[in-house]
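Why this split exists: single-chain examples teach little about how molecules sit against one another. For that reason, every record in the complexes split bundles all components of an assembly together and asks for one structure covering all of them. Below is a record exactly as it appears in the raw files.
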Amino acid sequence: MIEQGSSPRRIKLVLLFTAILVLAMVVQLVRVQFGPYAPAFAAIESVIAEQVDKVEPARGLIYDRDGRLLASNVPMYYLEVEVRQLTDSSKKQIAAVLSRVLVLPYEDLYAQLMHKWVDEGQFRIRITREIPGDKRWPILVDQIVADVLKGFLADPEAPDLSGLALVPAPSRTYPAGWLAGHVIGFVNQKGKGYFGIEGYYDDWLVGRSITVERGYIPLEARLKPDPPAGVNLVLTIDIDIQHMVEKILEQAIEDTKSESGQVIVMDPSNGEILAMASWPPLDPNNYEPWLPREERQYEEVEENEEELVINPAVAGQFEPGSTFKILTMAAALDAGVVTPDEEFIDTGMIEVGGNTIRNWDGGAWGPQTMLGCIEHSLNVCLAYVASEKLGTSLFYDYLKDFGVGRLTGIDLAGEVPGQLRTPRHPDWTESDLGTNSFGQGVSVTPIQLLTAVGAVANGGIMVQPHVVRAVVGPEGVYWPKTTILGRPISAETADTLSQMLSVSLEGETHFAQVDEYKMVGKTGTAQIPTEYGYDPRWTVASFVGWGPLADPSFLILVRLDKPEISPWGSVVAAPVFRQIAERLVVMMEIPPDQIREMWTGGGQDG
Amino acid sequence: MLPLIALLIVGGMYLAVNARRAQAGRQVLELQRKQAELERSNADLTATLAELTSPERMLERALSLGYRPAEPGDVEYILVEGYPGPPVFVAPRPPASSNMGEGMLSPAYTETLGEWLLRWLGWGLEAGND
C-alpha cells in the first residue's frame, strides 16, 4: 500500500539529487573551462577537435659493412613539469626521487621546481642538469628510468610526483660511441641530421611523416597507417678497422704531442672508405659542442670561441708538402718529359719566377736521378721538373686532372674543395709554379689528396671515394657503382711511379716498412701558412702510402698537425702508417708477398 | 506509436553499433600502444646488444680473457679453391608504406548504419570502407 504524500517527497528527493548532479556538472565545467588546469584541458580539446594525428616514420638505421649497427633509434623521454600542477609536497618529492634515480644534486632539481616560472609566463618546463662550463642540458632518461617513474606515477602509495610528465622523444643513439663519429655525423633534438652520413643522407634517412584524420567522438576503429619509412644504409666502413685506426691515431697524437690528426683508409680499386678517423673525436651521442653556433640551444657560445671542424678529413684544408710530389712526378713521367733514371744536378737552389727555392735541409745533393729526387724529397729537383720540364700549362692541366681544387664528391656533408691558383687566377705568379710543385701554396683536403694519389695506386684510374655501400629501401636494395672520376695518367706511368715510390720509401724512412710486404709511400712535412707568412715552428706531418705493391688492397693517409716531438713526416707520420698497415694485412687477410706470388705462380697452398 | 517504437529500435541499434565501434576503437588504440611499446623495447634491446658487441667492449673482454690481437707472423694462410669469401651483408628492409587504414578490420566496425541498410536492401554498395 502506498502512503498518501510520499510520492511528492520522493519526487522532491529525485529532483534534489538531479539538481545536485547538474550543479556538480556545472561546477566541473567551470573548473575545466576556467580553473588552473584550463590550458591543459584546452590542449587536449584542440587535439581532439583537430582530429589529426601526425605519424612519424622511424629514421633509417646505419650499419657498417658487416652489419654492425652504428646508428639506431631508442626511446628516450624528457622530464617535463606542468608547473601549475605542482604542490609543495610534490616539488620536494619530485626532486628527491629524481635525485636518487638519476644521481643528481637535490638542491639543483628543487631550485628548478621552486623557480617562479609562472611569473615569467612559462607553465611547462623541461628539467635540465648542469654540464661542465656552467651550462645546462635537458635531462633525457632511457626506457628503464622511464618505467620506474611511470610506476611511481601510477601508484597512489608511491611518492607524490604530480606535475611530472614523461614526454617521449625519438632519439638517435650511436652504439659504437665516438667510433666513426665524424663519418656518421649526428641528429639534433628536432630530428635533423648534421654532417657526415646523417647530414648528407638526411632526406633519405628521415622518411616522410603523414597526417591521418581520426574520429574521437565516437572513437574510430582504424588501424594506424605506416608512413613511408626512411632507408637503411650499409656503409663501406669496417668498424673493426675503424676502431683499430682510431686507437692508433689516439696513441700517435699522445706520443707525438700533436694538436690534431686524421687517418683515412681506402680501397683504391673502388673508392670504398674502410676507415676515416679524426682527432679530436666527435661523440655523436654528445654532439652539442659541434653544432653550428646559431643552432645551439642549451649552451652559451663564447664570443671568441672557434667553431669546431666537423670531419677534417673532408673539410680540413692543409698545404700537403712533399706528399704532393707524387702528383708532380706522375705528371712528368706521364707526359714523357722525364724518366726514372734521368739525371739532375742539384745545386741546392733554383729560381722560379723570381723566387729562390731551396731543399728541406738547405743542402745541395749533387747528381741525382728522378728516383733520388723522390727518395730524398728534393724541392729543387721537383721545382725544376715542373718549371723546366713540364711547363706551366701541362703542370696545371695534370693537377686539374687529378682533381686538385675540386670536390671529390664523397657522400659526406661538409666537403670543401681546397685551393689551387692556376695561371688564370689574377693573383697567380710564376713563382707559384715552383712552390706548387712540392706542395706549397696549394691547399688540399686529406680525402682530395688520397683520391688523387689513389690514381697511382689503381693503375692510373681515379675513382670517387664513397662511404655508402648499399641503400636499402622498402622496394629493394640499391648498390652504388664505382664512379670513375678520370684517368689522369696511364697504367704504365702508375706502375713505374709505384715502383719508384716503393724503392724510394726504403731509402727515405725505415719507419714505414712492413715485414714480408712491399709497401709504397711518400712522407710529407709542410709548413703552416699564417697571415704573416709561414709559421716558423709548427708543421703538418703526413704520410700517404699503399700496399701491397703488387696488388694494392689499401691506401692510407696519415696527417698529424703540429707534432711537438719532431716536425718531420718521416719520423712521426710514417710509423703510424706502418702500425696500421701491419694490422690491416691481418684484418683483411692479405698473405705475405712471397705466399701470394707462390699462389699466383702455381696455385699451391702455403 | 509504431513509428516511435521503430525509431527507438533503430536508435538503440545505432547506439549499440556505435558503442561496439567505440569499444573496438579503444581496443585498437590499446593494441597500437602496446605495439609501439614493444617496438620501443625492441629498439632498446637492439641498441643495447649493439653496444655490448661494439669493438671497444669486445676488445676489453678478449683482453681480459687473455687473448691478444694477431700479428702478421701468427697467421697461416691456406688457399681454398672455390671459396667465394664471406657473404655480403644486406640490411633488413624498412617497412613498406601502407595507407590501408581499415583494410584489416571487419567492415562491421567501419560501415555506417546507412551503408549497412543499403547493403541489406541490396542496393549495390560494397561493404565498408569510406
